[in-house]
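This week, study the protein below.
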Amino acid sequence: MAGNSGHLSSASKAKDGEAVYLLNQSSNTFLSVTAGSSPDDAVLAMAPFSGDLSQQWLRSGGQWLWGANHAFCLLPVDGTNDVGLGDANASSVSWSYDEASRIVVGSDALDVPLEEPRTRVILSPANDDATQKWTIDLVSPEEPEYLINQSSKTCLGVRKGSTPSTAEVGMLNGNGLKEEQWFSVGDSWQWGGDRSYCLGPDYDVRTVILEESSSSTSVWYMDESERLRIGDYALNVPLHTPNAAVVLASPNNTKHQKWWKFSDLKTSLEGTEPPVYPFPGDDETSYNQEVSRGLVNMLTPKTDPLPHPRDVPTFPGTVDPETPRVTKNVILNLSVLGHDRDFRMVVPKDWQATDLYVAEGDICQIILPENLTIDQALQITVRIGAHKDKLNPHSGTVENKTFKRMPVVSEVFDLFPGVNEIRSQYGGNLIFVFTDGENFMVNAEVRNVVEAPYFRYGVTPVEEWEAIKTRDAPHAVLESDKCVVVVPSSAAQELTDPDQLMARYDEVLAMESYAAGFDETEAPPRGKYWLVGDIQISGGTAHSGFPVMFNRQNNDLANVETPYSWVTWHEVGHNHQQGPYWCNAYGTESTVNLFSLYVQEQLFGTDRLEEHNNYVISADKVDGGMTFAEGDVWDRLVFLMEIKHAFPEGWEMFRQLFRTTRALSDDEADYLTKVVQRQIDHVYKTLSKIVGYDLVLTYERWGLSLSQGAKDEIQLLGLEKAPGNLSHRPPFAGNKQNKGVVQIGTN
């Protein structure tokens, strides 16, 4: 009974008048009246859990009264070892529940013989066999349990199939569906979709399955570390997108193995009040309660009001209840998915924007065709809200500061063929998200949503924008061929020329792509980058990833100057880096600015390093003995830019470096990631081959060590050694190195 706090322990007794189920610990089935309704025709037998009154018993002194008719009680059948029903008023039989978890009368105990199909229940002399051990399960309101992984914040469920031979057990985004529901019965977890099946292990492939409740011997328990355990294993949700799989793994202390029970979360919130924003970043109690409120709201039946208020007015914002709700058809385009190769960078995901917004607290319907397969439907999830950043007390913008908004402000829901009802507690732009699989297009009907400000570059007439931008939704969506930009509607209302804004974003993204080595001979990753403004993000004033996030107090994404700003070039540049293959070894925050400098040069013909005299400052530091490892972000960038300025290839050398790294086989690329020295060597060898000179002396000048194998490889090519000192010093216009000419023979 470990881990089932809702059950009596084996040494406890049911209180008089308390309805219970009597579960045999050997057969994992319940004492039931399977036929008849009176002492004359009743058949007592063991059966899988149904929850019916026919399986319920009430303690009354020494009697067990039958739940379907309290006038009858459990009795031995005279002259046999069977049990049946008798008249409760006339009975003098007294049953006890002893310390060995047996239900006994006199010297006999209630027993479930081992003979298949194990439906008989008899009286046998008391012994210590498991067939005579019983668990008394309290009858509680038939509320389902949800098992929520603390890492993924998703629910254990049956993703598809409905029988042990067809079911795929995995993780689902919580929506209160029967597929996610479980009922704790003894030491087993019966599935809400069909309680004749329960959760079982598949030790051969280290995962979990459905198995027959009546024959299951699975013993699950929640340990003191909140891990869901069976035998020597713990249930684990690996960190693999889309986090749908579950595995059995050796116990560890990560959140991937920690689980919440829905009932425990509800109980933990009783008597609490939500905090007032902003609240202190070190108030972990309030933070944990806010996370729990979000999960409880998510799983509360849609027929009930949301139990916990959300601070939506602070962020993401509210929709007027009087704003008209609409129904629209959306064509979902899954005709091209994922990527057919490894680009070794952060590639755009398959998100499809819409011009729709789900108001907070509203229940919207998303209707997929009934003839869509389960597998096809599971390739589609719906995201409510583009503000994906989840805050916690250790987030860079929160630690030692405040929570300015709720820790979570967006939600994701799985979809199935037919009608899907979704209630958003936060509200947000409606976004469809696709995962790799079958390619197809399908129509989705969306009901009970509002229209949001939406502009499609090259499609939406600018003259219509003046009316569109006044739509009542907190956030607007601006879309082009290369990106999607999400901004506050208040900022969108100030935007008079969305064409210019989106043209600039596309221009900059094209430059970033070119700097990464993509051109007409090698197409960049498909898909659109998303840039999203938020009032508080997880780190800094902006950060890369998908989406690229910006703190809107510092960055107005609707301002036409923002695409031409360093922060935009920098953060989108991060997405183009080849981090573990070489960029990290030369400084993550240094190599990213190769993209920034390239875009700055193309747009304005300027160089930030020249403007801030970094070339001279860094060269002087190296003259004074500074090594590459001792240099700051700008010094390390200067090292790479000195090489760029010294040779006629210029930017092409870095473009070729990116292309060369992409062209590596998976084994070759993986080999680089294992040792930093290999990454340093990779750049040295590649750049030396591109420029036609051995760069060993430059590396030595900067104290950047190379392996002997790398030096030998380049030496075998017979390349002349480039000067060690490639410093880029003013006057830049007359500097030979600035013209791309190496002065051979110097050092």
Q: What stands out?
A: The first strand starts at residue 19 and ends at 24.
